Amino acid sequence: MSTHLPDGARAVAIDILVHGPRSRAQLAKDMGSSAPTLTRLVKPLLAAGVLVETDAVPSPGRGRSSVPLDVVPDAWRFVGVKLTSETVYAVTTNLRAEVLDAETVDAPSREVASVVATVSDVVGRLRRRAGRQVHGVGVTVGGLVEDGEMVAHSPFLDWAEVPFRGLLAAEIDVPVFLANDVVGLTRAQQWFGHGRDSRDFALVTVGAGVGYGLVMDDRLVPTTVAPVSHLAIDPHGPLCSWGHRGCMSSYVTSPAMTAAVGQAHRRSVTYDDVLALAEEGDAAARRVVDEAAHALGRAVSAITSLTGVARIILSGEGVRLAELGRAALDAGRLEYPGARTSAADPVVIRPMGFLEWARGAAVIAIQAVFPQPDTVLP
Ligand SMILES: [Zn+2]
Questions:
Q1: Which of 23, 170, 175, 356 has a CA 20 to 30 Å removed from the CA of 292?
Q2: CA 230 to CA 162: how far, in whole Å?
Q3: Which residues contact 322 (CB under 8 A, 6 or more apart)?
Q4: How far is the CA of 143 from the centre of ligand 1 (A)?
Q5: Distance of CA 153 from the midpoint of ligand 1 (Å)
Q6: Residues 203-220: pLDDT tens digits?
Q7: CA 224 / ligand 1 centre spacing (Å)
Q8: Which residues surround ligand 1, an ion (CB under 5 A)?
Q9: pTM of this prediction exceeds 0.85
Q10: What percentage of residues in the chain have a pLDDT greater than 90?
Q11: What pLDDT score does 338 carry?
Q12: Is 3.30.420.40 the CATH classification of the domain at 197-349?
């Protein structure tokens, strides 16, 4: 039987999951509610096993209001799957999105039926190895995802109008949730990362493409039309694949950077080569990395000016360029200082690997499922 939780109770459970265990008294203070209200909200959560009292013996004379309440992270399992054109990255996590198991498999083809089979196989293996109930499966893809159901357009997979969630749900008998990959990463930062202590922040990822996620007043703002990846940087800059001159993608994407350095050295280079050469002081690579970091700084400035967010998390497989080119990044960021950009440095650099994308997919499932009490194991 499905149990319905009042919104206030959900908020308490989420607050404890995101910000850690606290006593009823502290929670009431943090959430601005009265002690009796808080106690009433906590009651169904304790009954359902969503929350537990972490210390059965309260300190003498202080009563139950001082007993810390916590979630039970290891009572929950989630699977996160991130698709790329060639590879399926999958992880199993607990409720705090800590990775417990992982698998990386080659996708034999981009054909929809084949991808559905590959994903349901890997989810099946992770579930068997988990050896217990999995509460939700989150799947993310690069591209436009509509209503959590449809991959409307994915240039990476070469898909259009694919009702992917329903196709997966027909094969996987656990609730399945579908989202854009940058949305998954942004939600992971919101609950379990650098966004945890900010109600407003933006995430910019660099790698093969440029991703942009935005959270305002603790809510995710849809940013599906890639407003940052083709932001104008320099009208005399290089061409991007869409034909723009000097847009973000023409500077910071890995294909743009490897092409520019490859051309200078008249040989093909990998993205790692570009960064290694820049670090060794190779003039061409250094210039390409600095120009990319400068463009990234301009994007940071534009985002802070337009949204007012005080924190910008830079991440993605290519984020090392921001570390190598930190001086150029700051120069770009401060070129046109506004009220916000001239204040404290908003930039947080968070290196990451591909499993981080899969973890972001797991967080899509965590946010969708938690804290439905009927999904908790008895
Ligand atoms: Zn462009």
A1: 356
A2: 25
A3: 206, 293, 296, 314, 329, 347, 349
A4: 16
A5: 18
A6: 999 998 899 999 999 899
A7: 15
A8: 230, 240, 242, 244, 247, 249
A9: yes
A10: 75
A11: 65
A12: yes
6 burial level (CB within 10 Å; 0-12, 13-18, 19+):
exposed
- DSSP at 173: S
Ramachandran quadrant class, 203 (left: phi over 0; alpha: psi -120 to 50; beta: rest): beta
Taking a C-beta distance cutoff of 8 angstroms, is the pair 212, 203 a contact?
Answer: yes
Q: Which fold has domain 7-71?
A: Arc Repressor Mutant, subunit A (1.10.10)
Structure-token pair, residue 68 = 């810390």
Query: What is 75-187+356-375's CATH number?
Result: 3.30.420.40
Q: In which residue are the tokens 């930062």 written?
A: 189
Domains 7-71 and 197-349 share a fold: no
For residue 366, the CA-to-ligand 1 centroid distance in Å is 34
Centroid of ligand 1 to alpha carbon of 241 (angstroms): 6
> What spacing in Å lies between the alpha carbon of 155 and ligand 1's midpoint?
15
Q: Please check whether residue 131 is in contact with residue 178, taking contact to mean a CB–CB distance below 8 angstroms.
A: no
Distance from Cα 128 to the centre of ligand 1, integer Å: 44
**182 with 203: CB under 8 angstroms?**
yes
> Distance (Å, rounded) from C-alpha 126 to C-alpha 89?
12
Any idea what DSSP says for residue 14?
Answer: H
> Domain boundaries in the chain?
7-71, 75-187+356-375, 197-349
pLDDT at 1: 40
Q: What is the CA radius of gyration of the chain?
A: 23
pLDDT at 225 over 80: no
Which stretches does DSSP call E strand in 73-127? 78-83, 87-93, 99-106
Distance 298 CA to ligand 1 centre (A): 15
User: In angstroms, what is the span from residue 289 Cα to ligand 1's centroid?
Assistant: 18
Position with higher pLDDT, 204 vs 4: 204
